[in-house]
Amino acid sequence: MKQLLNKAKVLCLMILAVSYLGCEEDDEGNVLPEVLAGFTQLTTEGTGTVSFINTSENADNYEWDFGDGTTSTEIDPIKTYGTGTYTVSLTASNAAGGSDTFEDELVILVPEAVALPITFDGANVVYDASTFNGAAFEVVDNPAPGGSNDTASKVGAITNSGAAFEGFFFDLGAPIDLSTDKTIQMNFWADAAIDVLLKLEEGTGAATEVTASHGGSGWEMLSFDFTSEDSFSRFTMFVDGPGTTAGTFYIDDITQVETMSGGGGNAPTTSAPAPPVRDAADVISIYGGSYANIDGINYNPDWGQSGLAFVNTEYDPGDGNFALAYPMFNFQGTDFSGNAQDASAMEFLHVDIWVPEGTDRQVKISPINSGTGAGEVLVVVPVTPGAWNSVDLPIGDFTGMTWDSVIQMKFDGQFNGDGSANTDPHDIYLDNIYFYREASGGSSAPTTSAPVPPARDAADVISIFGESYTNVTGIDYDPNWGQSGFGLVNTTFDPGDGNLALAYPTFNYQGTDFSGNAQDASAMEFLHVDIWVPSGTDRQVKISPINSGTGAGEVLVVVPVTPGAWNSVDLPIGDFTGMTWDSVIQMKFDGQFNGDGSANTDPHDIYLDNIYFYKEPSGGGGSAPTTSAPVPPARDAADVISIFGETYTNVTGIDYDPNWGQSGFGLVNTTFDPGDGNLALAYPTFNYQGTDFSGNAQDASAMEFVHVDIWVPTGTDRQVKISPINSGTGAGEVLVVVPVTPGSWNSVDLPIGDFTGMTWDNVIQMKFDGQFNGDGSANTDPFDIYVDNIYFYRN
Questions:
Q1: Which of 165, 317, 406, 674 is deepest in the core (most CB within 10 A)?
Q2: SS3 23
Q3: Within the chain, what is the greatest distance between any pair of CA atoms?
């Protein structure tokens, strides 16, 4: 038995040895072949279609990447490309796991059929025009850049042999649809006046044609206004269609544009208003029939404008009083450089302008000055479409201009009504273009007194000049500060009714000094002044108390002025940023500005009255609530964050009157009692107001609403807006209108969604802003509001 087992072991060893040797020989004799990926391709000319030929070896799986985001697993795929450069890759593999990748770059050029807009610069566009009756066509370099086409680019050249009705046509790759935009424009070059006929054919309706006239001045913009509603696939042109003019002409920039409202047919049917009679020394007339126009004017110099050769200097609206018509207007010049005008003594530029109804465009104007100061400053001319607009633009609007050597006028209409760019032509009509000044140098003075101020308690007013209140003592109304009007001040100017005013003739700036009797006006809320300047004055006047105490010493604030009338102005202390008025020693008036705020040191005349500081009587001087705001509902403490009110627990560390420069700073009453013991928050003389708890920032991101109760006096026509101020993620501030019915409490819940972009995850302040009229327009005058129950909550 033992021998039998030993023999079995030997036999097993022999079998294993044979098996091992057999496997070794098999591995050495059967090495797997290497995978080699590869391909070539055939491109069908002009189509972008590529047939790929797979040349891979030892593979049975294929993954194609065509370089444009598409793939395939076919052996020999066919692919159609558009124009471009593509990197194509093929990964070949077999079942044994071998693989290889091959890639190649393809450059595909697919010819494009010609279609509008046509510039003749497209690398792949086929500009092969079909000619007839002897005409020839080719694409060439622009032979004469200038005029309306000053670009060195490719253009189309049309050569006429001299036969009648010779021309060319394009069969378009995309039809011209005239259902909405009916105007075709092109740049056209000719060196002599000639008519161009454009015909549209092969359409959904009958063929249509329009003729435009070229002025012969080189490159000009032509416009063809069609009336058809159809679409057309053939664009046909005739230069001097029925005529026999020979020569070469050029075209470029063929485009379809919006047909302007009226299309040139909507025009004024009445004349512009007649200007007033003026002395010859007070006017320089450029165009019009009321004054003598200066000599040597070219109303249509070639500046490359789209309306060149279309200007009509004798447009008759029907009553014989000519106007200046600018059809196809984008911009326009008027040149009188051979007769430059010194208009530096003039105060205004006048123009009458008319544009068709429905026009939503801006027109700007500037004199072109070759003397001192700015050479050109474009200013918007206010326009109401469909009517004549008589516009007087003061020299101050043309910042930095002196008008001392005016050589041209420039009109620019390349703007939409909102001021954005729009170069499409439109029509305008002008009349009575002239510079002028008011007669006799502005020596006019008030003939009536300033309004009488209201009665006030002596404790509520500090008077500097006037007859209604007792003026402070020790005042010098004409200290020598080097002013142009020093020695000319009249403290007893009588406008005719015995109520004296303060006259500052030849005024540039002026001081009033009472430093020997400094006034603590820190409890006052407003500075009042009545001011009068002559009609035609386009100047700014600014005022500042001079303070020798704490805070800013001087802050000049503009005094709003309507010339030719008394202006009663109340300026809140908040306008004088950083001032405390705790030791006022002087008053300063500064008039060294044009109406637009630019510098002008030329003297002019002003008259003042009723200069005083005041505060409203205690209680804010206006109506106030006599009942409490509604009591909020009971809420869990986790569902509310209270800023002000008595129903919930307010967060700690709140300042209800931080100094943000507001007009009511120092006047906030956090314990206003409407009469029933439920206290409210009173903001008298409110323009805006903050509440600060930045030392105890609140995460209100889980809250859904901000609530406020608000009350404003009956007759108040103002908007109040509110915003939490957030220092975390999202928007920091979004003002939202608080709906208000005057004369009653308004309980308002504003959802977080109204505060677009806000998260309320780190609220540090609340802001109330009331600097708006009821219609949302700006109004910074203070008024009174009362608020209660300011809190965030969730349901």
A1: 406
A2: helix
A3: 156
The predicted structure's pLDDT at residue 441: 36
Distance of CA 39 to the CA centre of its chain: 57
Q: Are 139 and 156 in contact (CB under 8 A)?
A: yes
The C-alpha atoms of residue 583 and residue 518 are separated, in whole angstroms, by 6
Cα-Cα end-to-end distance for the chain? 95
Residue 752 sits at φ, ψ, to 5 deg, of -60, -30
Average pLDDT, the chain: 88
- Identify the sign of the CA torsion 301, 304, 309, 314: negative
Q: What one-character-per-residue DSSP string does 363-413 give?
A: EEEEEEE-SSB-S---EE----TTS-EEEEEEGGGSTTB--SSEEEEEEEE
What would the mean pLDDT of 242-264 be, rounded to a whole number? 77
Those residues with Cβ within 8 angstroms of residue 224's Cβ, 6 or more apart along the chain or in another chain: 183, 184, 185, 198, 210, 211, 212
DSSP labels for 113-140?
Answer: E--SSB-S--SSEE---EEETT-EEEEE
- Helix, strand or coil for residue 84? strand
Write out pLDDT tens, residues 658-716.
999 999 898 899 988 887 888 999 998 899 999 999 999 999 999 999 999 999 988 88
> Which is it for strands 71-72 and 539-547: parallel, antiparallel or unpaired?
unpaired
User: What sign results for the dihedral spanned by CA atoms 237, 242, 248, 249?
Assistant: negative
CA–CA separation, 574 and 656 (whole Å): 17
Strands (E), 573-603: 584-594
In angstroms, the CA 336 to CA 44 distance is 63
Q: How confident is the model at residue 502 (pLDDT cuts 50, 70, 90)?
A: very high
Question: How much is the pLDDT for 113?
Answer: 87
List, in sequence order, every beta strand (DSSP E) within 178-275: 183-190, 194-203, 208-214, 218-225, 231-239, 247-257
Partners of residue 608 on adjacent β-strands: 502, 531
- Report pLDDT for 520: 96
Q: What share of the chain is helix, strand, coil (3-state, %, to 5)?
A: 5, 45, 50
- State pLDDT tens for residues 354-372: 998 888 999 999 999 999 9
d(CA 742, CA 554): 38
Looking at residue 715, what is its pLDDT?
81
Residue 646: phi and psi, rounded to 5, are -115, -5
* Angle in degrees, CA 62, 63, 67, rounded to 5: 140
Question: How many Å apart are CA 509 and CA 485, to the nearest integer?
Answer: 8
């003592």: which residue's tokens? 473
What whole-number distance in Å separates Cα of residue 736 and Cα of residue 758?
Answer: 12
Lowest-confidence pick of 5-9, 139-143, 593-597, 741-745: 5-9
Binning pLDDT at 50, 70 and 90, where does residue 618 land?
very low
Q: What one-character DSSP code corresponds to residue 781?
A: -
Query: Using CB atoms within 10 A of its CB, is residue 112 exposed (0-12), middle (13-18) or buried (19+)?
Result: middle
Distances (CA, A) of 460 to 523, 547, 580, 664: 9, 19, 16, 15
Q: Six-digit token pair at 430?
A: 């002008």
pLDDT of res. 62: 95
Q: Report the C-alpha gap between 294 and 337 in whole angstroms.
A: 11
Highest mean pLDDT among 487-496, 613-622, 643-652, 713-722: 643-652
Nearest Cα residue to 352 out of 392, 404, 321, 317 = 392
Distances (CA, A) of 517 to 472, 476, 494: 8, 11, 28
- The Cα 188–Cα 175 span in angstroms is 22
Distance from chain centroid for Cα 172:
38
β-strand partners of 329: 426
Q: In 3D, which of 663, 753, 745, 650 has the Cα closest to residue 698?
A: 650
Residue 590's beta-bridge partner residues?
509, 542
194 or 496, which is more confident: 194
Between β-strands 112-113 and 125-126, what pairing exists: parallel, antiparallel or unpaired?
parallel
